[in-house]
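ok so dumb question maybe but i'm new to this and my supervisor (M.) told me to 'just get the structure for GntR family transcriptional regulator' and walked off. so i did the thing. is this what she meant?? sequence i used:
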Amino acid sequence: MNGVQALSAINNRPTAVVIADQLRESIINGAFTSGDQINEARVATQLNVSRGPVREALHRLVQEGLLISRPNRGVFVREITEHDIAEVYEAREVIECAAAEIITKRADDARATVADELETYLGGMQHAIAANDWTGLSRIDLDFHTKLVEAGGNTRLLRAYQTLATEALICMNHLSDSYPQPDRVIPGHEEIIANLRSGDMTAVHLTLHQHLTLDSYELHTHDDDGSLRHGRNEEDVHAGV
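this is what came out, is it supposed to look like this??
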């Protein structure tokens, strides 16, 4: 079952938000794939709603960057390019580092609380890896990173990250090069947790940079002197400076 047929009737909840959520989920799961046209009338018929809320839902997803509106042609699922993947991961790094900066400035007990909360996701990751459930693993992975951003307490950072997380899920589920090897997943997240717990922002930044850098996609910004964002230097961190 693909495309419009994967949508379910929403009965007494004909809101644009609910429709957008269903369409977003269908794009993430691959029921709609890159380049597919989403027909407003067919969606309205499938969901048993008027076309107005569907039009609003499509507009929401266009604003999120998941759909593209082409004049006189319709609305289409955006095709994810290698450059798009690189941009998503680079933007994730910036937002996660900003949230981590807030967390690492807190007292020891506050940092420990965040670290303990993040550790609760590791069991689910291990279970998903053992079950070869890569779709489930990608969702738990994004939940972990979203929780990290949420723990920063900046609602605007979180709002921006939630949109990126949707695009990241699409990358993870449909573009294998954008997801790390299974044996790197747990250790990578454990290192992020340990560095947040210790409050070492320089180490957190380097760990996040390595965790979110995709070797196949060259976009992550480094200056010629090897420095990363926020004035931190990758070579100095490796040298223990």
